[in-house]
Each structure stands twice: as structure tokens, then as C-alpha cells.
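user: Please supply your own:

assistant:
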Amino acid sequence: MRALLSAALLAACLGVSAQAQVADLRSHEALRVCADPAAVPMSSEDGAGFENKLATLVGEKLGVPVAYTWFPQGPGFIRKTLRAGLCDVVMGYAQGDEMVLNTNHYYTSAYGIVTRKDSPLASVDLLEDPALKDHPIGVVAGTPPATNLAQAGLAKNMRGWDLFVDRRVEDPVGDMLAQVKSGELAAAVLWGPLAGPLVKADPDLQFTPLLKETTGPKMFYRITMGVRLGEDEWKRELNSLIRRNQDEIDALLRDAGVPILDDYGKALKP
């Protein structure tokens, strides 16, 4: 009995120690952000991305400077940055991913369709719309709308780009938008926070959120900040900051051109 009790106490002490080690990884001297150096318009090494501006806002609210660990997003990003203890937060991360501990979401957005404003497809807001048939449509392979397009019978129309690329040397979103603008593509179906800010800066293009899809994967996702697993105190601190500053966060995202939806992905947030 005494041996079992000793073993239980040792296990408990080791558990507390392990939790303390996780918590100790977080810096209190700076907001250490894990980010892609070329994920325009989200993050960029020159600080122009809307996630860079959000990090600046969070740093100001916490009273600390912002410091970055730069690494291309893709396989190994979380393992080599956040989990390696080199940084303490990923500014934008889809809710529900088990690689990180998610904060409360601070915005919801959706995939949408990009067309020229003067295109005959400009009124399309549903991937099952017959108007899309026989037109070349750009999409990132492996993303939810690629499934919906295939289910709508548009597989032969799809022109695919790779999901995981080093955006320091490749720019799939920029390439698609350029081809829509030139007419080489009739439309492109893209994640709103990627396409929205870029389309906002182009007078010839428009972005229409896909809010009416009824089949296939959902088109809307809630976006959180991601911290290390086990860092519940840090998560709660960020949750409180998000709650207190939600209006300011919304304004920052809207100014950037990010389409913000209600929590259910049914309509644009008022």
C-alpha cells in the first residue's frame, strides 16, 4: 500500500513538474509570435499583414513588444516553432485542430468565389449554379471547395494549385487572382481572409462569400489564436483580451478587407 501511495505521489509530482515546464516556456518579456514570413495578406516579414497588425494590438494591450519566429507554414510548422518553445502564439489558427490549444475564436470567415466585376458570373454565390459549367475555375487542391466543386460536377473545369507551398518562392493565390483578372480563369474559389484583402485592393475584382452551400464540407470556419497544449493560463489571458477588445479586432479585420461572418456562417457580421 505504501509503495502504491509513493508511486502515486511521484506521478503527481512529475505531472505538476511537466505542467510547470510547459508554462515556463512562455515569455513574459515579449509577445513571441510564430508566423510565416510570406503569407500575404495574413503575415509577412515586413509587418504589413493583418495578423501582424493584430499581434501589434495584442502586444500593446499586454504591454510588451512583439518578437517573431519566422517559418513557412506547412508540415512541421507547429512542431518547429510553437512546440519547440521558440514562440508562444500563432495569431490565426482554425478552431478544433489538435496540434494546438485554441483560444476562443475571434472571427469567423468563409470560402468564397472571386470573379471580375464585369463577368457574367459576377452574381454567382453557389457552387452548384449551372452558370459555372464549362468555365475554368481556380481552386487550391485539398481545400473544402475542391470537394464541393467536384460534387457539383465541375471537376473537369477545375484548375488546381498546391495547398502547401513555400510562399517565399510561390504565390498560388496571387497567381489565381491574376488569371481571373486577365480572363484566363473565369473564377477562383478561395479562403476569404486570403482573397478578401487582395481583392479589396483591385478595382476589377470582387469576392462573394459562399453562404448558401448545402452539400459537402462546410465553407465557414472559426479562427482562434493557437498556444501550446497545456498552457491553459495563457489561453485564459488571451481569451480575456479578445473579449475586452473584440470591437477593435473586428475593426482591424474589416479595414484589412477580411470578410467577417456571424458565428454560424450564415451572414456577414453587422
